[in-house]
Amino acid sequence: MSAHPTEVLVEGSGGTGVVRRTLFPSGLRVVTEEVSEVRAAGVGVWVGVGSRDESAGVNGATHFLEHLLFKGTERRGALDIARAMDAVGGQSNAVTMKEQTCYFAQVHDADAPTALELLGDMVTSSTLGEQSFENERQVIHSELARRADNPAQSVSDTFERALWGDSPLGRPVLGSAESIAALSREDVSEFYRARYVPSNTVVSVAGNVDHELIASRVAETFGGWCERPAEPVAGRTRAAVYPEQPGVLVRQRESQQASVVLGCSSLTNTDERRFALGVLSCALGGGLSSRLFQRVREQRGLCYTVSTSGAHYADTGLFGAFAATAPEHVDELIAVLAENFDEVAAHGITDEELAVGKAQLKAVLVLGSDTANARMTKIGRGLLDGDVIDIDRALALVDAVDQDSVREVAADVLNRPRALAVHGPFESDRTFRLPGREPAGSN
């Protein structure tokens, strides 16, 4: 095998297996976590392309391509692909995100080579057939309609637009009905040719596997992808400047409840302060005893559920609170969310909230590493992002969070300009006021 020497990225200890990486001359990377106690294997092919790599005219192309890779290769038709995975009892799927696309399977450890060969064939040799293209266009229109009917998902898309405007990060991963209708097969093929190259790809496998055997199998099944010269990858499409002042967007929806997201920009995916922000998020909206749950639901009865969440990208991130309430209570809900953001930004959280937040975040991290696919995701996405953080190191970073670090990150993030998204059964001229901002109307 003509590859660079294997490198140990993480020495196995505690709940972490040994993590190794092999780099081929083409730039293709193979990373594994060997966990001998399980009999499953998570197999993934990660490509460093997402919706933020699209221009406005081809919004949705990356996700469209994800669909097409299941529809046939030079050696297999769509049914052959499905039968090959079913034959080993495996589960396969794919996901397109803002900055990455992943094709993955979870199988019995003995069938990891079969899953590797199948995913490798899909990623390197897809035909992107014309008939499949038109069929998937209709499927994606149905997927768009389903997402629009999901209150939490659809208002989250609107919040990202309010926060980042008409920038690549502000556009939805799935695209819009208009952009999908306008996409051509050549638009999608161009993404395939430009972005699906070895130097932009990570093969990630976790479970009861042997690294050298996996690397050898990749060399066999990915064909010329391993030994050819490394190719440059097209630069990532980014907004030169995000909106200086995020917006307030209101969308009319025929529903019994109104959905609200209030939030702001946040930290990058390599900023270690994100662990302090994670503790803050748990304390603010992570459980039944969290500050927002107690004050918004238990004390005021404004909603059934309220929660906080975030996302981290190469150059920015987001942090927000989501809740759904009766339409007549939206103004009060927005005010309460903003008041709690302001209070935490100014004063931080209590010692009890700190302890509970740290315990909750550690539980999330541990439970999120409990399957072979979860471990595959952690090491594969981590390598694309530039830093593989094993569970022991992550838990140590959470343990290191103290009141000073939470106060610092709260003052930084929660004092940033805020965006607001509201969906509900409102008249076209209905306005909502974000505290400190002029009111904005429906559109």
From TrEMBL:
What's the short name of a Pfam family annotated to this entry?
A: Peptidase_M16_C
InterPro entries linked to this entry: Metalloenz_LuxS/M16 (IPR011249), MPP/UQCRC_Complex (IPR050361), Pept_M16_N (IPR011765), Pept_M16_Zn_BS (IPR001431), Peptidase_M16_C (IPR007863)
- Which residues are in the Peptidase M16 C-terminal domain? 183-361
Source organism, top-level taxon: Bacteria
The Gene Ontology biological process terms listed for this entry are: proteolysis
Q: Which GO terms describe its molecular function?
A: metal ion binding; metalloendopeptidase activity
- The Peptidase M16 N-terminal domain extends over 29-175
Q: Which family does it belong to?
A: Belongs to the peptidase M16 family.
- Mind telling me what this protein is named? Predicted Zn-dependent peptidase
Q: Which organism is it from?
A: Actinopolyspora mzabensis
